[in-house]
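If you are new to this repository, start here. Below is one unmodified record pulled from the training split, so you can see the exact layout before writing a loader.
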Amino acid sequence: MRDLTIGEAARQAGVGVETIRFYERRGLIEQPPRPQGSGFRLYAPELVRRIRFIREAQQIGFSLREIAQLLALRADPAADCSCVRAQAAAKLDEVRRKIAQLQRIGSALEALIALCPGEGGLQACTILDTLADPARGPLPPIRGEGPLPVVPPKRTRRPHNGSAARIKRRAL
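And here is the target side for that same chain:
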């Protein structure tokens, strides 16, 4: 099988070109050298399998750091399957802890919603009052083992100068 351009490798792996570049920057895959006389780097067909491995591992919850460890184990002829099994078991424990935490959060939200009459002025909003002073309502404890899973904020585009002016006018 012939070597692939980055676009071909990305298509075959089911990812974008930027994903391949990101994996290169993170050290999960090697960036091939730029050949002399040609401006295109060529990727070995085996890279597609490695990218698919990374993507599958991400989809079941492994972090990039954990995936790097799995890839190192995969490449180590002395490694044992028990090491991989231990990492998968640890990931499963982490997932179960997160699920339990999310269930506690769900219960807290259900309790808040049940308190809310669903109408009237904000000065009588039981949800806002309970969040401001938890002693005022029967909010179940949501503290669990470890911190809540952190979800990074979505990036938003800055409006163009004209858009910013329109937004300011609307706010006034």
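Two things worth knowing about this chain: Residues 87-149 form one domain. Residues 81-115 form the longest helix (35 residues).
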